[in-house]
Amino acid sequence: MNDVLNLAASDKEVKAAIEHRISRERIGHVTDLMIFDKRPGYTQPVKAMTFIAELELFRTVFRLPPGYEQWRCVSCLDSVWRLLNLIGCSSFPDDQKRLCLFAALFLPLNDTIYSGNRRKKIPLVDYIIRDSLKLKASDAETVISLHTAAKKILTGLLLREIKECWRVALLLSMLLHPVDILSPSTSFSNERDEVEKRSVLFKTVENAVRTQGLEKVWEMKPLVNGKEIMYHLDIKSGGPDIGEWQQKLLQWQLACPSGTAEECLDWMMKQTVSKRARTNDQ
C-alpha cells in the first residue's frame, strides 16, 4: 500500500474528520458500494475491507467498541467470498449476495450486545448497520436473521422463517460448523483447502433440502384451518390451544409432505385421545 496514503489515513486529524465531518449516510453509501457493486466484474469486497483495516479506519467507519478484532471480520468475509465464488455467485440474486457479504463481515460480532447512550441494549450488528452506516432497518433485521439461522440446523420450520434467504444462511453456517461430517467416502487431495470442503458440504445439504421438497416450504398452506381444528377436536374456544395445534399441524405436514387433510385430522384426534388417556392415568 502507498506509504503516503497509509500515513495520511492513520493521522488523528484525518480520522477525526471522517468521524465528525463526513455524514454517516455518506460513509454507509460508500461502504455499501465497497461490499457489493452491481457493476459487471466487481470482485473487490475483501480487498476494500482489507484496505480499511490496514489504514486503521475499520473502527472509525463501523464505530466498533474497543477490543474487537477487525481481522476476524475481514477473514470471515474472505472465506464467504471465496465459497460464494466456488458455489457460483450467479446462483444468488444480487440482493442476497449483498446481504450475505454484510452478514459475513459482521459474523464474528453476532453474539455481541451494544449499550447505547441511553443504556438500551441492542445487538451490535444492528447498531452498526442502522446507526454507523445508516443503512435500511430491513438490512439490519435480515443480517441478524441470517446470523440466527446460520447457527441452527436447517429444519423445515427454520426454512419457513428465513424463506428465500435459506441458501445464504446455509452458506454462512459453513463457517460456524465443522466440515468433517461428510460421508467417509468423500476424499480430498492435499491441495484442496477448507473452502472446497465447505462447498461440497453446502451442496450436499442444499440437495437434501430440495430432494425432501422443502425448497419453498414457506409457501405451504395448512391442510386444516383453525375452525376445523376446533370442530374435530371439540375445542370450545380459540386461544393458546389452537396455536399449539396449528404448530403441531405444521410439523406433521413437514414430516408427511404427501399427507392429506383426512390423514392429518386422524393423527390429531389420535393424539388427543392419547393425551387424555395419559391425563386420566395420573
From TrEMBL:
Stated name of the protein: Uncharacterized protein
Keywords noted in UniProt: RNA-binding
Keyword Manganese carried by entry: no
Coiled coil stretches, renumbered: none
Gene3D superfamilies per record: cca-adding enzyme, domain 2
Taxonomic classification: Eukaryota, Viridiplantae, Streptophyta, Embryophyta, Tracheophyta
BP-aspect Gene Ontology terms: tRNA 3'-terminal CCA addition
Organism name: Anisodus acutangulus
Record PANTHER family: CCA TRNA NUCLEOTIDYLTRANSFERASE, MITOCHONDRIAL, TRNA-NUCLEOTIDYLTRANSFERASE
A molecular function (GO) term: CC tRNA cytidylyltransferase activity
